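As a warm-up, study this chain.
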Amino acid sequence: MSTATDPRPLTGEPLSLDLLNTRWISEGVPQDLLTDTGGLAVWLAANGLGLPADETVLRHTLRARDALRAVVDGPARETADGTRTAGTERIDDILAHGRIRLTLTPEGPGERPEFEDPAWGPGWLAARNYLELLSTSPDRIRRCAHESCVLHFLDTSRNGTRRWCSMASCGNRAKASRHYARTKEG
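Now compare it with the structure written out below.
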């Protein structure tokens, strides 16, 4: 486990969106937590995933992040003629590396993920989490509305109208921009 501090401006989102949020913009400069195994260790620890942060896990996790980005930020999951998009196929490729085994536990029915190679674990879990979000709240998966922000969040607001990754940063910048535009006109 890494003792490094997580530098990302938005954490605590569901696993699939948290993986997407390992890329962000800071003062106009793109940042990427997953440039090395040290950053991977920070992300794994932040999400309670007790796997070693090695090059293989990093490579598979980056493939999953790219697949998620293609499906979340890309075109619809299905084209007008009913064919699947490349993003959908990439998610399916990630999901092919694991499965859910149903179990009976002392608490009742349960599920246990199994992987052909444990290095696929974090990426597979993120892809599966995305499917869970699609089945429970697909219209609440959002990208921040600020034009220079690349972060994603699950809108858990009561009325489902959240627009910003953070009201303190992106929401405030948008308000300041509108205020500046109004005062400039006047």
